[in-house]
Design goal:
mainly alpha, 276 residues, globular, 73% helix
Length: 276
């Protein structure tokens, strides 16, 4: 795969992940977040189940499915005890974590990449805080710790994904997504799941586009794009989410969004040039 194609894959996956924010926001006004979480990953597993092969039973692939599923669960539970702004700010630490952990798989961190990481972090902070730092209290230690652990697991997920791609393990993508779904199934033991045409329809969209297709594109791109660059591109999901929320939910465009989004786009341009 050419690098230009891989970067396009990352842009599309970021867009698809970005669509999940307004979709979920719309959905949770009518159905339980737990129901949505369970249905999303159960449907993605059922859709991909016919593709299951014995070669997916590898320690690395199973580990990645476990890390991905555990991160989703930790973030979900953590967000019940903290604010969305605090959760978003803590999630930003994925970038420096990935940049640091990438050292262990022999990926270099040059000046352009370091600058791009910093620009992305500053941009994300501006967008999530709206420059109103007085409103941030970090009062929920439990919730913030869970969100931090989720960010740490996703960092490990990104770096290990890149590692197995570099090592030439064949076709790990579907296996990773399948194991993510398998490890999400135990949620049913903690809550009775209620089904409706609306919940199944929304969950089907999230399963196909915001899970299967987005993760496929992201993991395929990592065959040729390093872990830090992949994470920087993924931060665009925040920008796409805001744009889509303005279009479909009537949310207002603010100066902080323009500034923060501009900084994230600048970081994308930096690493895109680096990848040529």
């Amino acid at each position: 795969m050419r690098r230009e194609k891989a970067l396009i894959y990352l842009l599309i996956s970021s867009f698809l992940w970005g669509t999940s924010f307004p979709v979920v926001k719309l959905a949770v006004s009518r159905i339980s977040p737990f129901d949505l979480f369970f249905l999303r990953f159960t449907l993605s597993t059922l859709i991909l189940l016919p593709l299951f092969k014995r070669k997916f039973i590898k320690a690395e692939i199973i580990l990645l499915g476990f890390l991905n599923s555990s991160a989703f669960i930790l973030q979900f539970v953590g967000q019940k005890f903290t604010t969305a702004t605090e959760a978003a700010l803590i999630t930003v630490v994925i970038l420096p974590m990935v940049a640091f952990l990438s050292i262990f798989i022999d990926e270099r961190a040059d000046l352009k990449k370091i600058l791009a990481v910093l620009l992305t972090i500053v941009g994300a902070v501006i967008i999530t805080t709206k420059l109103n730092f007085a409103a941030i209290e970090f009062t929920s230690i439990r919730g913030n710790l869970l969100v931090f652990l989720a960010a740490f697991l996703w960092s490990g997920f990104t770096v290990i994904s890149r590692k197995i791609q570099k090592e030439g393990i064949k076709d790990p993508t579907w296996g990773i997504i399948l194991w993510t779904g398998f490890f999400s199934l135990p949620v049913i033991f903690f809550k009775r799941i209620e089904f409706s045409s609306f919940s199944i329809g929304i969950s089907l969209y999230l399963a196909v586009f915001a899970t299967i297709l987005s993760f496929y594109l992201f993991l395929e791109a990592m065959r040729v794009v390093d872990a830090t660059t992949s994470s920087i591109f993924s931060s665009l999901e925040l920008v796409f989410a805001i744009i889509l929320s303005m279009i479909f939910l009537g949310e207002r465009l603010t100066t902080s969004v323009l500034i923060g989004g501009g900084l994230i786009l600048a970081s994308i341009i930096l690493v895109a040039k680096e990848e040529r």
